[in-house]
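Human: We require from you a standard protein entry with sequence in single-letter code and fold as tokens, and nothing else.

Assistant:
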Amino acid sequence: MKKLFCATAFTLFALAALAQSPQPLSFNSGHSHNDYKQNIPLLRAYYAGMGSIEADVFLKDGQLFVAHELKEIKPGATLLKQYLEPLYQLYKENGNHPYANHQLRLQLVIDIKEDYQHVLPQLLKELKPFQDMVNKPVNPDAVSIVISGDVPAPENFKNYPALISFDGRPAKVYTEEQLKRVAMISDDIKNYTVWNGKGTPTKIDEDKLLKVIHAAHQQNKPFRFWATQDSPNTWLELEKFGVDWINTDAPEKLRDFYLRKDKLTYTNPVPYPVYQPTYQADGAVKKVKNVILLIGDGMGLAQIHAGWIANHGNLNITMIRNSGFSQTAASNSGNTDSAAGGSAIAMGEKTNNRYIGMGTDDKKRTNLADTLAGYGLKSGIISVGDITDATPAVFYAHQLDRSYNEAIAKDFLDSHVDILVGSNQKSFLQNPDADLIKKLEAKGYTLNKSIADFKQKSSGKQLVLLPDSATRPVKDGRGDMLAQSLKQTIKLLSANKKGFFIMTEGAQIDYGGHVNDLKYVVTELHDFDKTVAEALRFADQDGETLVLVTADHETGGLTLLDASAADGRVQGEFSTNDHTNIMVPIYAYGPHSGDFTGTYPNNEIFKKIMKLFTGK
């Protein structure tokens, strides 16, 4: 009994090890199941780069028709017209290769629905004009012809020419010679599990799946399950189990998933440490002297959780205990952009998309920075992107369209913001108002063109216009510009006895969402999170500072599919390259942090902040 247990345990261990290191798949690992049911048979799967294309056939009136049932046969829908002839034309156009990319393989799986005894001779007859394309034993670049469905008994494989091979079954026992004619092993996944593609199978079912795949691999044969669900999660799980072909009825969707797989997966092998707040003033009902508002542009709960997983189960943001939800809809659309989303926070009322600090009546509204200046507070606006872009612009400018970068830059002349940090030098230095910089200097601003210059300043108003290279993505080597900017801004504004307001934007979380690049999203979120740590650290030292962390909207419709906090690995999928209407979280730390719990429209953030200073 002990020996049996050890052998079983070893087998399961070996299968588990096999599953942990399967061969990576690609879109060319796709098997276009029931391909003839596509609105454009063959070509949809072919141009999606599928490595295996399946056509069911019936013999009728001396021709092979493609259909799932006899009653579905349509005039002209023959194997010859829909598959062999167009495939041969493509083969010739590609210089006698299945695909223009000669690294891609192709097998045509012909599923015989009935009567193989008569179908196979007819098939061999129809293949005869295309011998150079289908004779794999002679031409390694040929299209493999694989027979499935109603096939001869293994002992009769030898009666058919070597240019055709067969789709094997796990329950069949093949001799060494018979196995040479088997192209792959396939089976119905329902024979092993009731798993519907969501989540993962049970451990018992997983062992069954691993065992049958391993058995095929022991015979040096690729394996395929049919009747699988068509979803990214299913494909991921099947790949982890070690299948070689992914069954699909959505070849283009599968192609896109695998083509973008590198951008949908990110692993952070070494986590960074997070700051441990003291919580001494957290939630206290006492005076708020300073507010640090950190906006992760495009940052929804999925982005935060992806960052948490990639940092091995820890974030500075998630150390914050009080949280709520902000509803982001614009006044003229359920789906906000950064202009309307930011304006709602900055001026306390909903407005139209693309509007910068303007009401729906096209009139200017006083923003938070200018309003708080009336109470003696100094302010700083920081972005890790273009400082004339929507989110930072709404805190100092008033324009009817967010694209008016030069007009937005000129609006800074009338702002009460004391420190402005970000890129896009051109909109200021080459402004149509050639004297813009001189006018700003006359108002007391010192122009800085690098963070190093900015860090040398000990007082006064600062205009920090960085070259675009200084705000390149973190993944391209930006460094900690955002955290350093916040630390220096806090240092300068802390001298003001009445307090300060700082808005700090992690702009490029949004950029990553727009291009559906998970690595871009997570690395930017981590940079933003490290900046949150600086705000929390100061809040603990000061005791009168409220830290708010939120977003103007979510970008990309990010869904997390597979993850391991232990490994810092996350895999996801995006549903759009645009913003979504999903509520975004708001985290609050420090005095009156409890005031920001609950669910409310984003313009309420302005009102809650103002109430802390005015009492109404």
User: Anything to note?
Assistant: Residues 518-542 form the longest helix (25 residues). The CA atoms of residues 120 and 160 lie 9 Å apart.
